[in-house]
From TrEMBL:
GO terms for biological process: glycolytic process. Keywords: Kinase, Transferase. The keyword Membrane does not apply. This is Glucokinase. One of its GO terms (molecular function) is glucokinase activity. Belongs to the bacterial glucokinase family. The keyword Ubl conjugation does not apply. It comes from the Bacteria. One of its GO terms (cellular component) is cytosol.
Length: 326
């Protein structure tokens, strides 16, 4: 193994993915379960020391949570991470912590035509601002702003913006949801954190709320079962649940794209999106493009599904390329 290699990690609420890059080539990879409670730094130390005799030049970990002072507490896992500790664990001279969807945003500069599927909108006009959104354990949002021909990542907590009922039926569903998960509601309103329904964590709650409105009972499937029941039309509650899911995902993606002026494209990423491409159909696109007086502006925004499973690792490496030499 060459002396000049880079450690990158993509750490979510469910899995931690590690990789070694030499140049732009991904060499070694490993996947760990973050829900087992194992120490992330021990995982990183084991990965670097067991495979390579020399420490990495740079280490970058992209993780789910807000970054402050090169450190974060994972949003959906009981773990914390800092650049100083990552540097000690890996031996890297330079170690950075970035938001996982900042990495996802950087990945859009590296994925090729074979890695994405066009859903709607115009062709990307060249260098322009890009938006990435992906439901997973939570709901991630990242932006790559293009200014004066250069890109800059913007990370935030876009998955926690408000989502409100879109119909009278959804008023009943959201009211039922309040009894199941009151913490996601904005005060006394029926506005909720978007992640409360647009995530693997929130989907079973949404399913149960639909059950309550429909006055049915029975076991609540896991997210995979809910998507499968809707896809094969075997579960009426799952069908209604996924109808709500895709309408809100489409609307929020369109709202954020309009807010940031994402003429460089909107990219849907993550396991839920990749495993369920059938949800990005006409109703989803209608929700994405419908915007009152700005419908025409939303209709031309390029909308893509990313089919590359290692987008987070690739994006973390693209961020490495922006750093000054260690």
């Amino acid at each position: 193994m060459t002396k000049h290699w880079y450690f990158v990690a993509d750490i979510g609420g469910t899995n931690a993915r590690f990789a070694a890059f030499h140049g732009a080539r991904m060499m070694e990879t490993a996947v760990y379960d973050t829900k087992q409670g194992d120490d992330l730094l021990d995982m990183a130390r084991d990965f670097t020391r067991s495979a390579f005799p020399e420490p990495p030049v740079v280490a970058v970990a992209a993780a789910a949570g807000p970054v402050k002072d090169n450190a974060l507490q994972l949003t959906n896992a009981n773990a914390s991470l800092s650049g100083d500790d990552l540097g000690l664990a890996t031996g890297a001279k330079q170690a950075k912590i970035i938001n996982d969807f900042a990495a996802a945003a950087w990945s859009t500069l590296a994925v090729g035509p074979g890695d994405i599927s066009r859903i709607s909108g115009a062709e990307v006009p060249g260098p322009a601002t890009r938006l990435v959104i992906g439901p997973g354990t939570g709901l991630g949002v990242g932006v790559l702003v293009c200014a004066d021909g250069a890109y800059h990542s913007v990370s935030g907590e876009g998955g926690h913006i408000g989502a409100a009922p879109r119909s009278r039926y959804e008023v009943e569903v959201f009211a039922a949801l309040r009894t199941l998960w009151p913490d996601i509601f904005f005060g006394d309103t029926l506005v909720i954190e978007a992640e409360g329904i647009l995530s693997g964590t929130g989907l079973p709650y949404l399913y149960q709320a639909v059950q309550n409105v429909e006055r049915t009972d029975g076991p609540v499937p896991d997210p995979r079962g809910i998507f499968e029941g809707a896809r094969n039309e075997s579960d009426p509650v799952a069908i209604k649940t996924i109808d709500i899911f895709k309408a809100h995902l489409g609307q929020i993606a369109g709202d954020l794209a309009l807010a940031f002026g994402a003429s460089g494209g909107v990219y849907l990423v993550g396991g839920i999106a990749m495993k369920n491409p059938w949800i990005f159909n006409a109703p989803f696109v209608t929700a994405f493009t419908s915007g009152g007086r700005f419908t025409k502006e939303r209709e031309v925004l390029p909308l893509y599904l990313v089919n590359e499973p290692n987008f987070g690792l690739i994006g973390a490496y693209k961020y490495v390329e922006t750093l000054a030499p260690a």
